[in-house]
Amino acid sequence: MKTKVILAGLLACIGIGAQAQNAKTEEPKGKAIVQVFGNFHTGFGADNDDRGFELERSYLGYEYNLGKGLSVKGVMDIGKSSDVSDYQRIAYIKNAMVSWRKGRLTLNGGLISTTQFNFQEKFWGYRYIMKSFQDEYKFGNSADLGLSVAYKFADWLSADAIIVNGEGYKKIQKNDGLNYGLGLTLTPVKGLQIRVYGGLNESDEDGKKDITNLAAFVGYKHEKFTLGAEYNQMWNASNKEDAGLNGYSLFGSVKLSDVTELYARFDDLYAKDDWNIAKDESTAILGAQFRLGKYVKIAPNFRFTAPKADGAKEGYYAYVNCYFGF
Predict the structure, then answer these.
(1) Alpha-carbon span 179 to 176, nearest angstrom
(2) To 5 degrees, how large is the angle CA 32–CA 36–CA 40?
(3) Domain count of the chain?
(4) 273-286: per-residue pLDDT in tens?
(5) What's 171's DSSP letter?
(6) 29 is a domain residue
(7) pLDDT tens, 218-261?
(8) Which tens digit of pLDDT belongs to each residue from 55-104?
(9) Is the distance from CB of 225 to CB of 119 less than 8 angstroms?
């Protein structure tokens, strides 16, 4: 009798231990996606009347892991129109995609995030404060309808390819042309990352030219600081012949504590033969980020803009950007 009691106790302990182990390793099947970007800003001097609170963008969605490497994600993007006379909020479907991961291979299909500048955006790390260079100056779209594939050949080398409509996630497919892209990412030593990307966006319209993009990026990430530099070039911008755009972005950040960081960035955009002189500019930003708990960030910063058009005035602004998300 005593032996039976001991055996029963051992079996109960084993069962409880197994359940605890399963509870530890079992991961949630799905998670909500909530991200809100807002700011208060004010200009100085000639821009003194440009001030106010702004809700720049909200992302609302859900991601679900189906198991065996298969997952689905849907995200709504609620923002503002690019038309300055339109003051209404506009909602778009940003992502409606299926992903499959098997070993070193990743496949994505549907309304997916593009690969043209996604790597640089994540490395910059302050999307809620300012878009990465190519997104800020319209070198490409952040999401589009199509397919992408990525393969990690080694710890130091990975490659990706993408084919999408080429008109972004805010427009339906109007033209028959497609957008093709190839990227290569190298990590020669720990913390150092190098990426090159080339893309071709077909116009498929008489009198309009194909758009070609080339991007090169190098960055170093340490537990205490981050440095990054990218150069971008686009030929036949807006499908116009000989409409070339060039530009570079330099940025860095320093971690002062678990809740405080300093960051700085300088962008320079310039066009071939000054065809884009009304929009060509240099921009600098300097600020700090404070984490208020797990889900909230506040980032006061100062910005300086120097347009390259003759007679255009320099701009000086103070911002307080806010982020909430999980």
Answers:
(1) 10
(2) 170
(3) 1
(4) 889 999 999 999 99
(5) S
(6) no
(7) 999 999 999 999 999 999 998 999 899 999 999 999 999 999 99
(8) 999 999 999 999 999 999 999 999 877 665 556 778 889 999 999 999 99
(9) no
DSSP H or E stretch at residue 297 = strand 296-307
- Whole-prediction pTM: 0.86
CA distance 170 to 94: 8
Are 15 and 304 contacting, i.e. CB atoms less than 8 angstroms apart? no
How many other CB atoms are found less than 10 A from the CB of residue 83?
9
> Are 318 and 44 contacting, i.e. CB atoms less than 8 angstroms apart?
yes
CATH number at residue 78: 2.40.160.10
**Is residue 62 a part of any domain in this protein?**
yes
Mean pLDDT of 183-192: 97
Q: Judge whether residue 25 has pLDDT over 60.
A: no
How far, in Å, CA of 13 to CA of 19, rounded? Answer: 10
What single-letter DSSP state applies at residue 141? -
Q: How many CB atoms lie within 10 A of CB 154?
A: 9
Do the domain assignments include residue 118? yes
* Inter-residue contact 131 to 79 (CB < 8 Å): no
Residue 247 lies in a domain: yes
Q: Which domain holds residue 92?
A: 44-325
Phi, then psi, of 61 in degrees rounded to 5? -170, -170
